[in-house]
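Incident log entry.

Two folding requests arrived from the same account within the same minute. Monitoring flagged them as a possible duplicate submission, but the sequences differ. Recording both here for audit purposes.

Request one:
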Amino acid sequence: MESYIKKINDSVRAKHDEKGAQKIKKSYLIAGGLTLGLGLAGFVSSFITFMVLFFEYETDRAMTAWLVAIPFILMIVAGSVLTRIGDMLLRDEAIEQREKEKHDFKQAMQDYKLDKKKSKDDEGDISAILGAVIGDICGSKYEFNNIKTKDFPLFDDDCCFTDDTVMTLAVYKALKECNGDYQELSQKTIECMQDVGRKYEFCGYGSGFYNWLFRKDPKPYNSYGNGAAMRISAVSKFANSIVEVRELSKKVTEITHNHEEGLKGAEATAVAIYLARKGKSKREIKKYIENNYYNLNFNYEDLVSSYQYDMTCQGTVPQAIYCFLISKDFEDCVKTSISIGGDSDTLAAISCAIAGQYYGISEELKQKAVSFLVPQLEDILLN
């Protein structure tokens, strides 16, 4: 109805000046009012006649009276339509608002259906962790050789897991070994990261983290590198509220990345995954992240043309979350995040961790990713 009124409105404005348009608006209102009034009067009269004849057992005449009422019902409908057109005519803001409300309602219904479909609280769900692993493996080939297109295979022989996968699984291992008691999570994370990480010392660690990894008494080194966010995906699996997400995120992050931006990047990623786990829509996730962490006002084409290699949280996490938000499905998220360039494996690990939780991951992709892992890492992921 609103779209039809808008067409009439546009036509009237195109053919008449303001005075003429107001006359047409008035004509619609008068015609609508008269038609509606006559229709109501005729219908009421026919209905009363029908009731009188019906109770006097003059059934044939009563049905005739009821049939006579049909044209008056049509007049009521026509009068209502004319009145509605007259009321809305020349009210551009009202028309646009009605169309917006209609669109928002449809979008809300779609979001509701998606929320119900995607709501996950299954304790065995490792979608976010697996998503990070897949993003890392698929992006590994393009970390120092960016590909500014989505036209590439997800996996090939040049792909491999990197430090992103190793540290993601080390944090996951620490959280599992806490058995629900997270008072000593920071120390447990240090132990697991050093134990697992030292076995793969040439998988791409930054120099600062490499030194931390092999120290006997490791201390945080005020880092705001994106490694804080790429390893955080397991936190949302064990948290029961956003408050707990923040607490756990801080404990597994501050042992190395105790800079404000490092803590922020990890927390924003963990919160986005948690919201996806709880079945929130993309609009709700975007709103929460923008209200509490980052501006996500990017343009995909601009990122493809101008985004550069950036190892910081503030230069990776917002872009990664944006790539998830504009993705169509999990595979599209992998390709979207890698196609903008930058620190491809880490950006994809962050983006795909959220996407994995939001969309879910097929068994085929899961098995393909697992085939790139060594037995120890596979055991941490699957057992």
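Request two (distinct sequence, not a duplicate):
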Amino acid sequence: MGLNFRKSITKGGARINLSKSGAGASYGTKGARITRTAKGKTRATVSIPGTGLSYSTEAGGGKEKSKTWIIVFIIAGVIILAAIAKKLGVITADFSDLLNLL
């Protein structure tokens, strides 16, 4: 087993990740996060908070992967915008309230 190193610095929704590979950055909230890895890849992750269920995809690849990336990116953007709107007091609904509408 080799030597590993990883350190995260978090401020608000932004996170800087330091590792042997270099520095990466991510931004998001519970339920959605956009990440730029130390190796230069971009990843979008969406999840249902509190359930352990999540879906992640990386940018690039073939046509099928690109379609998936766009869908996940849109969902992540909507979740991040909803979290910002809630923090600003524009909306008062919680994530669980939105799930009840479905």
